[in-house]
Specification:
The complex is a heterodimer of chains A (278) and B (422). Chain A has 278 residues and is α+β, with helices and mostly antiparallel strands. In chain A, 31% of the residues lie in helices and 9% in strands. Chain A has a three-stranded antiparallel beta sheet with strand order 2-3-5. Chain B is 61% helix and 2% strand. In chain B, helix 4 packs antiparallel against helix 5 and helix 13 packs antiparallel against helix 14. Classes of the chains: A alpha+beta (278), B mainly alpha (422).
């Protein structure tokens, strides 16, 4: 090591000043969480829902396979024979009692895989908190989807516009029979509110990302790729311009959304005020 | 370096053009009148309130800038842009439970925060924040007090502030606070020497200890600033020493969170903790102001030819300069990792003190003999070479030669240890 290198080494800490100063102009990484939410991943595991067929019949047959497979012992099911004059489910029996204890549930989705009728699936909702231990036990009346097939908005859950879309994750998260030749083949029944779910895209290229909410892996990871793996158009100065353009568009969309939200808020306030007067 | 020194000599460090010293505040030049007393009280109150508000702003500023430098957003909930965050935090602290540890020495434990806060307030009193103002028949300086010993008061107060930290750590009756306070006292005493030597160079060229006289000596354009007159070096030493004195990063060994929980204030809670916190940030502002006073001409600056500008422009210049230094302190915190304890002591004793002593010699020589003072350059260089050689020899001693026990010695990876297990 020469003297020049030694001196350079002694003053290498000055690089930190440059880096931190550059960061003043870089975009912020923080998401203002309760105000804005990041989009959820298509396979996210949230709280459960009990699905119904498109004719409104419940899918659950009270077989207790989910309770048996549950590693956390959080599911309690009791089946009962369907009353012959007004059956709840198409089969012989139906789920008379269905309880999930969310203080124990680890969201492993084993119950979803065990279910023979696709009755129980997981939504993407994770923002539910309780101040009472007994509130943590969801019963059938809370888990069952409503008449439109959407998860119920319970008062202590934090729902926003669009949060109940694409919530039923099971179909896309499970490979049909685990056989590659079945990729893209639909092997499941429709469900209330969603109809027949589109299959998740594999390596064959037969995919409908818009319907499944998926993103190609390469697209997701582009920011983390090595320089030589990034397409030429996205490298260097050109890439910077491209990213800036995308950023500007995203910001514009964000501003637009915020403006619309404010407009809506104002309208609802105005309506409430008018109602109060009337 | 020679060119710099000749420039220094040419810039006119001349004892004969030095301003008149020891005049003090003109407020009392015609005896004491009740109006003078009123002005005095208003001045003290204004400074007190401004300093408190400025400290609240400083805490917000630090949190905001450091989060900007880390691509975060920072406080943004209380008030616009999170401006009232400090107020919210302070309110919370006041209403929290005030704990007194069982092992604590109750009286000292309660006294320590005051020993930290009061010097922080007092130090700011000698800082000239603006020009000279005439109100009716009363002419006064825009600073709380202008004692003839001005800059000595700053040094004395920073010495007293150590007692706050030291007693806090000792009286907590707990291990980590004690370690933190021992570190604090060793560190502050070590760096006070370098700090004092840097201040002496300023005093040498300004011919006064009074802060007002130091500022006046730097008027008429930025090339008269001590920063340039003294050739940048004392400023750099002062900056490093003052950062260590403030125990701000990268010299925050006294409250190194990862080693000592919170250092000397680990056992403190509620408003007593708040007072330490307040004192820390108040000291940051005060020391920025002292740097500005000593090296950057204080409130001196260009004044536009507008009526009344002579009243508020110095104040604005002062604020701009101080904020710039506050930013630099935050920048230090963002950019530099914490020093190891031996590195801290090495930097203080082996580098800063000898180098600032050398620079002081050069400045003194030039002040006394004009350009003939350059004769000291070879002397200083020779002494420096000797010292470097001596410290090198000292750090390369082998185990057998050492007079110290091997316990606690730094390991040298290049040399296998005598035990043979390295």
């Amino acid at each position: 090591m020469g003297l020049g290198d030694e001196v350079k080494d002694q003053f290498s800490f000055l690089g930190g000043f440059k880096l931190t100063f550059q960061h003043l102009t870089r975009p912020r990484v923080t998401t203002q969480y309760p105000d804005e939410k990041k989009p959820k991943y298509p396979r996210q595991h949230g709280r459960h829902v009990l699905n119904r067929y498109e004719d409104g019949m419940e899918k659950c047959i009270g077989c207790e396979l989910c309770a048996g497979v549950c590693p956390a012992d959080c599911i309690y099911v009791r089946g009962l024979d369907n009353p012959p004059d007004h059956p709840v489910s198409p089969g012989e029996r139906y789920g008379y009692v269905y309880e999930i204890n969310y203080l124990r549930c680890i969201h492993c989705d084993m119950c979803v895989e065990a279910c023979p009728t696709e009755a129980i699936t997981e939504s993407k909702l994770f923002e539910f908190s309780f101040s009472n231990r007994s509130d943590a036990i969801y019963t059938k009346s809370e888990l069952l989807v409503d008449d439109r097939g959407m998860p119920q908005k319970l008062p202590w859950e934090d729902w926003r516009e669009g949060d109940d879309m694409m919530t039923s994750g099971w179909m896309r998260a499970t490979s049909p029979a685990g056989n590659a030749s079945y990729e893209g083949e639909v092997q499941w029944s429709g469900e209330l509110g969603y109809g027949v779910r589109a299959p998740e895209g594999g390596q064959s290229g037969r995919r409908n990302d818009e319907r499944t909410g998926n993103k190609a892996l390469r697209q997701t990871l582009e920011a983390h790729l090595l320089a030589e793996d990034i397409p030429l158009a996205h490298r260097g100065m050109k890439g910077r311009v491209w990213r800036a353009k995308i950023g500007a568009e995203r910001n514009k969309a964000k501003m637009e959304a915020a403006r619309n939200r404010m407009k809506e808020l104002r309208a609802t306030r105005k309506a409430a005020k008018a109602e109060g007067k009337a | 370096m020679i060119a710099l020194l000749t420039h220094l000599a040419a810039a006119g460090i001349n004892p004969h053009t030095a301003p008149d010293t020891g005049t003090g505040d003109p407020l009392f030049s015609n005896g004491v009148h009740w109006g003078d007393l009123l002005i005095l009280v208003v001045r003290v109150l204004a400074a007190f309130i401004m300093l408190l508000v400025a400290t609240a702003m400083m805490i917000w500023f630090e949190r905001k800038v450091i989060s900007d430098m880390q691509s975060r957003i920072g406080p943004n909930r209380a008030g616009p842009w999170g401006l009232l965050q400090t107020l919210a935090d302070g309110t919370k602290l006041v209403f929290k439970e005030d704990l007194l540890p069982d092992q604590a020495d109750s009286f000292t434990f309660k006294l320590a925060p005051y020993l930290s806060v009061v010097p922080a307030f007092v130090t700011f009193a000698v800082v000239p924040v603006g020009g000279i103002i005439t109100l009716g028949t009363h002419t006064f300086e825009l600073q709380v007090a202008d004692p003839p010993i001005g800059i000595l008061l700053v040094l004395a107060m920073s010495g007293i502030a150590v007692y706050g930290v030291m007693l806090a750590g000792w009286s907590s009756g707990s291990k980590y606070p004690l370690l933190g306070s021992v570190r604090a006292s060793a560190q502050v005493i070590s760096y006070e020497a370098a700090l004092g030597l840097a201040v002496v160079t300023v005093v040498l060229v300004s011919h006064s200890l009074s802060t007002r006289a130091i500022v006046d000596a730097q008027s008429d354009g930025f090339w008269h600033w001590n920063l340039i007159r003294l050739g940048f070096v004392p400023f750099i030493f002062f900056m490093i020493a003052i950062t260590a004195e403030l125990t701000r990063p990268p010299f925050d060994l006294t409250e190194a969170d990862s080693e000592l929980v919170g250092g000397f204030h680990t056992e403190y809670s509620s408003i007593r903790f708040g007072m330490f916190y307040l004192a820390e940030f108040m000291n940051t502002i005060t020391m920025s102001a002292i740097v500005v006073t000593l090296f950057f001409g204080g409130p001196n600056g260009w004044i536009p030819p507008i009526a009344g500008a002579t009243i508020y422009m110095p104040l604005i210049w002062f604020v701009i300069k101080v904020v710039a230094f506050c930013f630099i302190y935050v920048w230090f915190r963002a950019a530099l990792p914490r020093l190891r304890y031996d590195q801290l002591m090495d930097l203080g004793w082996k580098r800063l003190i000898p180098m600032s002593l050398a620079w002081l010699l050069l400045v003194a020589g030039i002040v006394a003999w004009q350009w003939r003072g350059l004769i000291l350059v070879p002397v200083v260089v020779a002494a420096g070479v000797l010292l470097v050689r001596a410290t090198r020899l000292g750090s390369h001693r082998t185990e057998e030669e050492s007079v110290l026990p091997s316990v606690g010695r730094r390991l040298d990876p290049a040399r296998p240890s005598p035990g043979g297990n390295a």
